[in-house]
Amino acid sequence: MTLEELVNSKLDKLNPTDLIVWRYIYAHKKECCYISIYDIADNCNVSRTTVLRFAKKLGLDGFSDLKMMLKMEISQAREKPSMDIAEATVNLCKNVGEEIAKQDFTRLNKLLHNAKRIFVYASGHVQKNVASEISRLVVNCNVLVYEIKGPDEIGIILKNITENDLFIIISLSGESKKVVDVAQKLYLQKIPIISLTKLKSNTLATLSTENIYVTPIDLPATVDFEYKSMLGFFLAVEMWFVSYSQYCAEQIE
């Protein structure tokens, strides 16, 4: 089990301060292999005890065990044998498909079905392609989704949105400032949010009404370049669409 998987399995035991520590460690994995517990505490503006408590909540004996897990993961990543691109792609589809198949789309379908207006907001180039795919698919169910293209549009929409509307936000990390700012404003206005992110422990997910989680998987590229496939996001959207189309059919019967 990787450290990320361990954190996700213990989410119910972690408080917001623990998640601050985890987000720092996740973003600085190599650095955290060598710095002290005091350095991490200072960088997170928490106490040494908080960092130690975080490690113990994961079931580890202490911070040294956490650093050991990080070192092993980084070492294994470097030693990972090369894989045929076709085999890697097949494994990607299989693993992501199995992960997404475990998610229950029922509450998401109800939000989508009952929304007066639906807006989708994406934080990056690939995420915008995912947003366009959502719009393209759900129009087959007579659902129109408005894609927000820029900051001027988001400002106007936030002034006129109501609790009867729905926001779909797509972000890889769920931590970018623009995304978090938008989500916080929506949260305060009690606007339903569906988020698509790669991590369960992120700020956007905590502010959202419902979540879809996708774990990007590494595909072989070059020795000095790590490539994380975004195919999982498109698979998740497609599986959600299939679930929603079945939900709509059930409403008619």
Which helices and strands occur, and which strands form pairs?
Elements: H1 3-9, H2 16-27, H3 29-32, H4 37-44, H5 48-57, H6 63-79, H7 85-101, H8 106-114, E1 118-122, H9 125-138, E2 145-147, H10 151-160, E3 166-170, H11 177-188, E4 193-197, H12 203-207, E5 210-213, E6 217-222, E7 225-229, H13 231-252
Parallel strand pairs: 1-2, 1-3, 3-4, 4-5
Antiparallel strand pairs: 6-7
Helix pairs in contact: 2-4, 2-5, 4-5, 7-13, 8-13, 9-13
Can you offer a commentary on this structure?
This protein is α/β, with parallel strands linked by helices. Helix content is 58%, strand content 13%. It contains 13 helices and seven strands. The chain has helices at 3-9, 16-27, 29-32, 37-44, 48-57, 63-79, 85-101, 106-114, 125-138, 151-160, 177-188, 203-207, 231-252; strands at 118-122, 145-147, 166-170, 193-197, 210-213, 217-222, 225-229. The strands form two sheets. Strands 2-1-3-4-5 form a five-stranded parallel sheet, sandwiched between helices. Helix 2 packs across helix 4, helix 4 crosses helix 5 (48-57) and helix 7 runs parallel beside helix 13. The longest helix has 22 residues, at 231-252. It is globular, with a radius of gyration of 20 Å. The model has no long low-confidence stretch (mean pLDDT 86).
